[in-house]
Amino acid sequence: MANILNIAAYRFVELDQLPELREQFRNKTAAHKLKGTILLTPEGINMFLAGIPDELEAFISWLTADARFADIEIKRSWSDEMPFNRMLVKLKKEIITFHQPGFDRTAHPAPQLPASELKKWYDEGREFVIVDTRNDFEFQVGTFKNAVNLQLNTFGDFAAATKQLDNYRDIPIVTFCTGGIRCEKAAPYMAGEGFNQVYQLQGGILKYFEECGDTHYDGECFVFDKRVALDGELKPTATNICFACRTVLTPEEQTSPDYVVGVSCPHCIGKVQSSTSTMAGNSTSV
């Protein structure tokens, strides 16, 4: 039975005195023996944490007792092992880097579309365009049926890539990502650029899996920790990652003689040197 609780959560809220706040979070996560990453920024908080259920729930109680975080939406999943290597509390300029100076996500709000409503749209055959705001390698692991792949290398490429969507300015567009945070900027940006009906999937793929399973979804959902990918039941899959080149590997690719853990895979054999660096287990995009 899985005995490690994992949470993903974010909240856009004005924060100040960040160095002092960082120390509070460092002390509290250490007291509860948690691992993962917390980003503290002037525009809010983003975090991925894992730990013993009682300890993590105690941390959540402490967090939500603060009025700034009282309404934070927390997505829970389970794993057999700790998916993070260490505990990091970082100070950043943005929750998610967007490369759009002066952008105000509140200037052109985009409504959130509940998971159940997206499923209903699919079920009814409603006309809409669904846009994956994640990186291309995440898209390749799994995505919603008929999703548009903008072939992003990083989320900072999103603004320029929206030119690919010019023919859909008057059609309902649903943006989505892993947990919702990228769409908190992507959807308002599109609304400000003249796209007339832009929505953001509430809670992202993880919330959709929680409420609707993998109906209308093909493949798995990549996550930025040692679990690598989750299925529609929010359970880790056999998908893995090459420690040498960080390419996502299917179970079939892992049977190749070119796949040597920490050394090479079919994608990088002969191209990279052996690496024992840790994987992107404490990355922060959702």
TrEMBL record:
GO biological process: tRNA modification
Gene3D superfamilies named in the record: 3.30.70.100, Rhodanese-like domain
Domain Rhodanese: 124-217
InterPro entries referenced in this protein's UniProt entry, alphabetically: Rhodanese-like_dom, Rhodanese-like_dom_sf, TrhO, TRHO_N
Listed SUPFAM superfamilies: Rhodanese/Cell cycle control phosphatase
Any Pfam family: Rhodanese
Keywords: Oxidoreductase, tRNA processing
Any GO MF annotation of the entry: oxidoreductase activity, acting on paired donors, with incorporation or reduction of molecular oxygen
EC number: 1.14.-.-
HAMAP family: TrhO (MF_00469)
Function: Catalyzes oxygen-dependent 5-hydroxyuridine (ho5U) modification at position 34 in tRNAs.
Family listed: Belongs to the TrhO family.
Name of the protein: tRNA uridine(34) hydroxylase
Lineage: Bacteria, Pseudomonadati, Pseudomonadota, Betaproteobacteria, Nitrosomonadales
Gene that encodes the chain: trhO
